[in-house]
Specification:
Length: 283
């Protein structure tokens, strides 16, 4: 038998030796999950002897972390907008930057003056955007689109877990293809925006484990975003809105593209790190 402290120290050393960033914090978070206790409680349980099932669970998690698998995939969920979302290799892990996209949509007063706005979340992935919006504003009609059937499966599971499974229509599709002209009030998207060259330099836990199709935005990072904007011109009703999460250095290019495609009232919103993160415009 081993004590909690012994496992914490040996696990931290193992992860550090394999180049895992912040190995002590990662190890504490894994232990908190496996032992089902708040992380800070670990410090008052250092002398606790761990059971064999607990040791087996920790060893399995440490092994996965040691080959670079993200903690969120190992423990199976993450927090986003104050809710829990299931996470696995079917979709990108929800990140805090994307909360800025949700906040931007919720703060668009003209959109919410419509009795039941038709809103599409393009490239829904884990479903975190559509689900968060449906929880905050259940009055709207939501459709979540993704080209990946596997990602849509995860999004459906997350919607059911968060109690909005019946509030969102899930659709397999390529961006806005199949939507009728003038049928939508808002298009919301967190599409791939990392350049192909930068994808090669991503940290190992991202590069080797998260779906590259949800990261690689082409030579300038804007391939899909530009195509979406072109489609949104016809699919949005007059006065409809588009909300785009972008890379911190892409706002000038995206604003220019929206302007060229007849959008007005264009604004750039920043994330919590004071970096350009969301561009919105009105059709």
């Amino acid at each position: 038998m081993k004590t909690l402290l012994e496992v914490l120290q040996s696990g931290t050393a193992y992860l550090a030796g394999r180049g895992v960033e912040n190995p002590r914090l990662i190890m504490e978070q894994l232990m908190s999950h496996v032992l089902k206790c708040p992380r800070l409680q670990l410090y008052i349980r250092f002398e606790t002897l761990l059971s064999e099932p607990e040791l087996v669970g920790l060893r399995a998690g440490i092994k996965r972390l040691g080959v670079g698998e993200p903690l969120q995939y190992v423990i199976g969920d993450t927090e986003f907008m104050g809710r829990r979302f299931k996470t696995d290799k079917r979709a990108l892990i929800p990140r805090p930057d994307t909360e800025s996209l949700i906040t931007c949509v919720l703060g668009c007063e003209p959109l919410w003056k419509i009795e039941k706005p038709a809103i599409v979340d393009v490239g829904t992935g884990s479903g975190c955007v559509a689900i968060s919006l449906a929880l905050a504003k259940p009055v709207a009609g939501y459709t979540a689109v993704d080209a990946s059937e596997a990602a849509l499966g995860l999004a459906r599971e997350n919607a059911a877990f968060n109690g909005v499974g019946a509030a969102i229509h899930f659709k397999t599709g390529n961006l806005l293809e199949g939507f009728e002209s003038g049928s939508l009030d808002a298009v919301v998207a967190n599409l791939p925006y990392i350049t192909t060259s930068d994808c090669c330099a991503l940290p190992r836990h991202i590069r080797e484990h998260e779906p590259m199709s949800a990261l690689d935005g082409g030579a300038d990072g804007l391939d899909l975003i530009k195509r979406l904007v072109e489609q949104a011109v016809s699919v949005l009703r007059s006065g409809g809105w588009i909300f785009l999460e972008i890379g911190f250095d892409q706002s000038v290019s995206v604003v220019e593209w929206l302007t060229r495609n007849s959008f007005s009232g264009i604004r750039v919103n920043k994330d919590l790190g004071n970096r350009d993160r969301v561009v919105l415009g009105c059709r």
